[in-house]
C-alpha cells in the first residue's frame, strides 16, 4: 500500500484572500512611495483647492453676498465638495498614466493577484483624496471658518465623505481606463467636472443662477454633495428640487449608483486590458 505524504509546505501557502490583501497593500505602498519622487501628483489635492479658497474668499468674496451667513462659512463647505469631486480627475489621470506607461504590463508578469492591481490604484487615490480633505478643512480652520458641528453630525459627515471619496475614486479609475492618455483624461475631466462643480452652488447660491444652469444644478450630483456638507456643518437647508430638499439621502443614493455602475465596469475593462 502506497501512502502519500503531503508536501511539507503545502499548508503554509497563503489563501487567495490573504494573497489579495497582501498584494493590494504592497502595491498601494508602492504607489504612495512614488509621491516624493513626483510631488506634482498632489497639486490637485493640495495647492489647487487653496488657490480656489484664496481667489474666491479674498478676490471675489467682497462682491458676493449670501443672505444669513458670512461668505467664509458659505464657501468652505463648497470647497470641500468641489475637492472631493475633482478627485475623479486625479484618479483618472493616475490610472491612465499607469496604463499607458506599461506599469500594468510589468505587474502582469509578477506572481500577484490581478485584482489587487486595480484595488491598490483605488486605495492609493483614496488616500490622496483624504489628504486633500484634511488640507482643505485645516486651511479653513486657520482662516477662521467655524463649522457648527455636533458630534453626531461630525460622524455623519465623516461617513459621507468616505463614501463619496470611495465612489468618486472608482469613477475616476474607470474613466482613466477608457481614455488614451493622461492628458485626454485631464481635458475631458475638466470639461465635465469643472462646470458641474461651479453650477453646484459651490461659490454662489443656486437660486440666483439663470434658468438653464439652475435646472442643471437642481439635479447635479455635486450639488447634492455640497448641499449635504453645508447642511451638516452650517445647518443650511437648500431647496428647489427633491435632491436639494434631502441632500444627504440624495448623496448616498448617487454614491451607491456610481459604485454599482463603475466598479463592475472598471473590473471588466481591466480584465479586458489584461487579456489583450
Question: What is the topological layout?
Answer:
Layout: H1 16-33, H2 47-60, H3 71-100, H4 103-108, H5 114-142, H6 151-178, H7 182-198, H8 211-217, H9 221-234, H10 242-245, H11 247-275
Task: Looking at this protein, list some descriptive labels.
mainly alpha; 0% strand; elongated; disordered N terminus
First-residue to last-residue Cα separation = 49 Å
Quaternary class: single chain
Helix content: over 70%
Structural class: mainly alpha
Total domain units: 1
Please state the average pLDDT score: 84
Secondary structure tally, helices: 11
Protein architecture, described:
The protein is mostly helical and 276 residues long. The protein has one domain (42-275). Helices cover 71% and strands 0% of the residues. The protein contains eleven helices and no strands. α3 (71-100) packs antiparallel against α7 (182-198), α6 (151-178) packs antiparallel against α9 and α9 packs across α11 (247-275). The protein is elongated, with a radius of gyration of 22 Å. The model is unreliable at 1-6 (pLDDT under 50).
In brief, what are we looking at here?
The chain is built from eleven helices and no strands. It has 276 residues and is mainly alpha-helical.
